[in-house]
Amino acid sequence: MNQDKLHLIGYASGIAGVDVRCGEGPINLQSILDNKKYSWNAMLKPELNASIPIEQSVRQLCESLATQVSQALHHRQRLVVLGGDHSCAIGTWSGVYDALHASGDVGLIWVDAHMDSHTPETTHTGRIHGMPMACLLGHGLPMLTRILHAAPKVKPENVCLIGARSFEEGEAALLQRLNVKVYLMDEVKQRGFETVWEEAVLHVNRHTIGFGISLDLDGLDPHDAPGVDVPVLDGIRAKEMGDALSRVADDPRLVVTEIVEFDPARDYDRKTEKLIVSFIEHIAKGKPHDG
Ligand SMILES: [Mn+2]
Predict the structure, then answer these.
(1) Do 135 and 145 contact (CB within 8 A), yes or no?
(2) 234 catalytic residue (yes or no)
(3) Which of 115, 167, 172, 202 is the most exposed place for a label (fewest CB within 10 A)?
(4) Which pLDDT does position 163 carry in this prediction?
(5) Ligand 1 centroid to 114 CA: how many Å?
(6) Is 267 a catalytic residue?
(7) Residue 2: phi, psi to the nearest 5?
(8) What is the distance in A from the centroid of ligand 1 to the CA of 99?
(9) 159 bridge partner residues
(10) pLDDT given for residue 291 in this prediction
(11) 90: Cβ contacts below 8 Å, ≥ 6 apart
């Protein structure tokens, strides 16, 4: 196995989000990324069958993703998961849990304009892409919280949210009750992204054997990343995010990076597409893990 190669998994689904065309994101990226530099482990697609409820399809897809992620980690591959809507996080971090929980807990930095911490009790839209953070913390539909294992996949003290600026009371209340560290966008602007990011890296590494990144592109400023379904003004600048990814790419504690919510149909000038490619290149330049 070539340990230098960066491995990619596509979650080609937008069925849990606002616009199903979000599912085209990883397919679009697969067509332009150089196959000599990257190894695609899988391109997961939802079963299109109107008689299956969406949550059932999402569960199946996330279970496949979790299995793929776990296998990649068992083979010590350096891995990036590409969405697709953010429901893929349920699969990604369930797979990380499956592979690593015997060794210890894994931390998670979640960059997002939203909190994604709704449960069926608090959601206004019913969409699962607004629920993955809650699911991973063990709150929500059992069919989504119990993928591969019944246990919660991350512990609240090991999670950091960065960039939130559009959220509802119910989900904010859940995160507050669980004492999850949240850097609202106001704080990011006041203190600077780099400062907040470095603090977050320390936070998620305090009690863990490593950490992951879940990057929802809508956490970025829509001027920099227009190709998303739920843009919110005044986000993190792409340059700062890219610099942060460059800095952590060499960090042996970085387990998996996930980049989600790319919708090519809403992109213009291929701006978001080029940005994602540059992010993946930053991560690919990092040193491979010691065997
Ligand atoms: Mn999200």
Answers:
(1) yes
(2) no
(3) 202
(4) 98
(5) 6
(6) no
(7) -85, 105
(8) 24
(9) 108
(10) 42
(11) 58, 62, 128, 132, 135, 136, 144, 147
Check residue 3 and give its pLDDT: 57
Length of the chain: 291
Q: For this structure, is 116 an active site residue?
A: yes
Residue 164 three-state SS: strand
Ligand 1 centre to CA of 117 (Å) is 9
In angstroms, rounded to a whole number, what is the distance separating the alpha carbons of residues 187 and 184? 5
Task: Kindly give the distance from the C-alpha atom of residue 2 to the centroid of ligand 1, in angstroms, as a whole number.
Answer: 32
Q: Which of 7, 118, 129, 139 is catalytic?
A: 129
Q: What is the C-alpha to C-alpha distance for residues 220 and 112, in angstroms, rounded to an integer?
A: 8
For residue 68, the surrounding DSSP H or E stretch is: helix 54-74
Catalytic residue among 24, 55, 85, 86: 86
Q: What pLDDT digit, counting tens, does each position of 119-160 carry?
A: 999 999 999 999 999 999 999 999 999 999 999 999 999 999
Residue 263 appears among annotated catalytic residues: no
Strand partners, 82: 10, 259
Rounded Cα distance between 291 and 286, Å, is 15
Distance 104 CA to ligand 1 centre (A): 26
Q: List pLDDT tens digits, range 90-121.
A: 999 999 999 999 999 999 999 999 999 999 99
Report the separation in Å between the CA atom of 260 and the middle of ligand 1, taken as the mean of its atom positions.
8
Q: Residue 35: its pLDDT value, please?
A: 76
Q: Which residues of the chain have pLDDT under 70?
A: 1-3, 287-291
Q: Give catalytic status of residue 86 as yes or no.
A: yes
pTM across the whole model: 0.96
Q: Which of 24, 98, 218, 263 is catalytic?
A: 218
Q: Report the separation in Å between the CA atom of 29 and the middle of ligand 1, taken as the mean of its atom positions.
A: 19
Does 124 qualify as catalytic in the annotation?
no
Query: What single-letter DSSP state applies at residue 15?
Result: T
